[in-house]
Amino acid sequence: MKPQDYTHLLSQLKAEYAAYAPRSAALNERAHKVLVDGGSHTLRLIEPFPPRIAAAHGAWLTDEDGHTILDFWQGHLANILGHNPEVITTALAQAFAEGFGLQTGFTDRLQIEVAELLCARTGTELARFTTSGTLATMYAVLLARAFTGREGVLKVGGGWHGGHPWALKGVGFHDQQGYQHIETAGLPAAVCEEVLVTRFNDPDMLHDHFRRYGDCIACFIVEPFMGAGGFMPATREYLQTARELTTQYGAVLIFDEVIAGFRFRAGDTGALYGVQPDLATFGKIIGGGMPVAAVAGRADIMNLAGRAGGRRVKFSGGTYSGHPASMLAAKVMLHYLIEHEADIYPRLAALGEQTRRILERAFIQEGIYARCTGDGNDALPGSSIFMLHFPYAPDHPLAAPDDVFDPAVCDVALNGDVLQLALLLENVHVTHGHGALSTAHTEADLAFLEAACRNVARRLGKIGIKSAD
C-alpha cells in the first residue's frame, strides 16, 4: 500500500501545539541558543519542540504552560513506580539532610548491599556498576572480546544497545539495506566489519550465522524482550538456541536487560526462560530514577576487569560510578520490588494487557486498524509494556523489528511523529507509539487514555485516513 502523506497534517499539528504551549515554545528558542537542537537527548527533542516539564509525580507531568499530562514514557521506562515515588524521595531527602548522598570519591557499604541484591536476584556471581546502559553494554562487549580473544560481535537487527561503536550498526530499518546500515558517521570501518546482524526470533538464521562465523564470534548480545526495536518478547526457542550455540562455539552470551531487568519480575528476565547468560546488563528500573547501570555475570569473565584478571579490560568506572545517592536509590528500589513482588507484577501485567486492548479498540472502532506489541508469551506471564502499530494487513505477524518498521508493511509515519504530537495535544505523552505502565497508573488514567485515542482517531478519520481495504 502506498504510504499516506502526512505533511499537511503535521504542519497543522505543529501550529496548534505552538499555540497551545507558548512557554515551552519560548524556552525552546532559548535552548537552541546554547544546546544542540535545544537539548541533550535526541529522542526527547520532538518537533516543533518538546514540552518543558516543571513537575512530575506518579503517572502525571506538569509542563511550563500548566498542562497536566498523562505520561507513559516514564523516564525512558525506568519509573516502574511512577515519577518521584515517595519511597525513594523520602530516603534521599533523609540522607541529604543527614549529610550523606553527594559524591565523596570513596566506597561505602551501599555498593556492597546493592550488588548482593542484584547478584542474588539474577543468578550472577560478580557485578560492577556504571552510570548508563550504553556503558554497561560496551563494557560487556569488551569483556567478551577479551575473554574469547575474538573480535566478532553478533547482534539483532533493530536492537538498541546504546551509543557505542559495536552497537551503532543495524539499529534503524532502511529500505535498501534493511538492518545492515551503519547508524553514525565517524566509526572506524573495521568496527563496522566486526559487527554481524541477525534477525530477532529467527533460530534458523542464528544457526546459519554461527555455522558461517562461529569461530570468529566473541559474543551474541540480545534483549530477552526487544525494546526500541518493537517491544516484543523473545520466544523460548530463540533464547534457548542462543544459549546452545554460544556454548557450542565458545562465544559469550550477553543478555541486555537494561529495559527488561526487574520489569517482569523482581530480577532478571532470563530466569523466566530458564536461560542463564554469561553476562547481563541492567539499568533503568534498578536505579529508582537515579543513574545506575551494571554488568553482572560469571566471575571468570568479570574478573578480567579486576586484579585477578590483570585488569586487562579497562572497566575502571567513572567519577559517578557507584554514586552514593544513586546506590541508596537502587537499594531502596530493589528492596521494595522484592518485598512487593507478588502484588506489583501481576497488577502491572493486568494494566498492560488492558492498555494494549484499549489502544487497539479505540482506533479500530473509529475505522483505523491498529495492533499492539508487548504481549507476554509462554515464558513471560504478562507485560506492562506496549507499542502501537498500524499494519496494512490484519494477519501480518509482529514478531521481529522488520515486521513493524518496514514502511511497506506498517504505517510507520502515523505510528511516529503524527501519533505522538496528536496525543500530546490531548495531554497524553507516549514516544513514537510506545510506553509502559507504572504502579502509579490507575483505571481512571486508562479511561483518559482511551478518550484521547478516540479523539485522535476521529481527527484522522475526518481527513480521510482509514485502514486499507
How does this structure look, described?
Strands 4-12-11-10-7-5-6 form a 7-stranded mixed β-sheet, sandwiched between helices. A 4-stranded mixed β-sheet has the order 1-2-3-15. The protein has a 3-stranded antiparallel β-sheet with strand order 13-14-16. It has 469 residues and is an alpha/beta fold. It has helices at 7-20, 22-32, 74-77, 86-97, 109-122, 133-148, 189-194, 203-213, 236-249, 270-273, 299-302, 324-339, 341-364, 401-405, 412-424, 443-462; strands at 53-57, 60-63, 68-71, 126-130, 152-156, 195-198, 217-222, 225-226, 232-233, 252-257, 279-282, 293-297, 371-373, 385-389, 428-429, 434-436. Helix 5 (109-122) runs parallel beside helix 12 and helix 13 (341-364) runs parallel beside helix 16 (443-462). The protein folds into 2 domains: 7-84 and 342-462, Aspartate Aminotransferase, domain 1; 86-339, Type I PLP-dependent aspartate aminotransferase-like (Major domain) (Aspartate Aminotransferase, domain 2). It is built from 16 helices and 16 strands. The N and C termini lie close together (10 Å). The longest helix is centred in the last third of the chain and has 24 residues, at 341-364.
